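seq:
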Amino acid sequence: MRAVVQRVARASVDIDGERVAEIGRGLLVLAAATHDDGETEARLLATKIANLRVFADDEGKMNRSALDAGFSALVVSQFTLYGDTRKGRRPSFIAAAAPEVAEPLVTLLAEELQVLGMTVGTGKFGADMAVELVNDGPVTIWLDTSEFRR
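struct:
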C-alpha cells in the first residue's frame, strides 16, 4: 500500500457540497492499494502512520507522533497514487488494485488507526471528493509498504 501523509492544522472532505468528515490538527492520509496488498500491508501502514514522529516536542524537534500528541487522522482513498507516468503523458493506473480489493484495505487502514488509539475521519471510497487542508510546516511524507523492512 502507498500513502501520502500530510501534517495538517486542519483538513476536511466534502462530497456534493456536504461535509462528510473533518479533523483539527493531525494527519491527512491519502491511501491506495495495489494488487498484491492485503491485511498485513494495511496494518503495517497504520502502525507506521500512527507512530510517525512528525510533530514537535517541547524543544521544537519532530519527536512526537500523532498518537503521542492525541491528534486525529483523516483517511482518503486515492488510487492515483499508483499512477505510472514513465511512458507518454497520460498516467496508467494498471498497478492500482481493483475497487473490490482496495476498498476493504483502505477501510482496514482507517479501522487500525482507530484500534491504535487515534480519532479517524474518512472520505467515501470511489466518490468525487473535495479535500481541503491547511498543510502544517509543510510536512509531507511518502510511505510505501513495499519498502518497509519486515
